[in-house]
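Thread title: Can someone regenerate the structure for this chain?

I was given the following input by a collaborator and told the matching structure tokens would be attached. They weren't. Posting the sequence so someone can regenerate them.
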Amino acid sequence: MNSRERVLTAIERGIPDRIPLDIWATTEVWRKLQAHFATDDNAVIEQKLHIDGFAHVAPSYIGPEIPIHADGMTEDYWGIRRRPKEYAGGVYHEQ
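Best answer:
Regenerated them for you:
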């Protein structure tokens, strides 16, 4: 079963040969994976990890401007507030 067949089978509530895999990693994680696999080609890393290569599709946001609060928090169109938090490895937007 190839990746496409595996994903479509899972979406259709069938039984694929294995669970389809995807990866959403931070820049810091990608750097560590690149060092581990000695490549800067993320497609090579995804192949080695047997990632099935989902296509992530999202429409562009065209609603009202997203507010930024006085304390630095942003609020998305779902009303979820996030604050930028700096760590040794980078900046994350925590809820």
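The chain has a mean pLDDT of 90.
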